[in-house]
Q: What sequence folds into this?
């Protein structure tokens, strides 16, 4: 899947990937921000810029390295 990045300085710069989905959620955005204050700013700008009916957030606090398979 091709990843398109907004121009630097754009409000949606934290967006790293966008996936169109079928089912409960229409779209999935992977966003990378340094802290919750930056996420709150991004969320506010997103909902003010893009007309959305509903926004759900799931936060990953850190990336985990894959472990060896269990035998």
A:
């Amino acid at each position: 899947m091709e990843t398109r990045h907004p121009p630097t300085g754009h409000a949606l710069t934290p967006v790293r990937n966008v996936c169109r989905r079928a089912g409960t959620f229409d779209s999935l955005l992977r966003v990378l921000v340094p802290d919750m204050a930056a996420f709150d700013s991004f969320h506010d700008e997103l909902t003010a810029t893009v007309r959305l009916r509903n926004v759900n957030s799931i936060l990953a606090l850190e990336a985990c390295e894959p472990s060896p398979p269990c035998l």
Confidence is low (pLDDT under 50) at residues 1-7. The first helix runs from residue 36 to 49. The helical segments are 36-49.
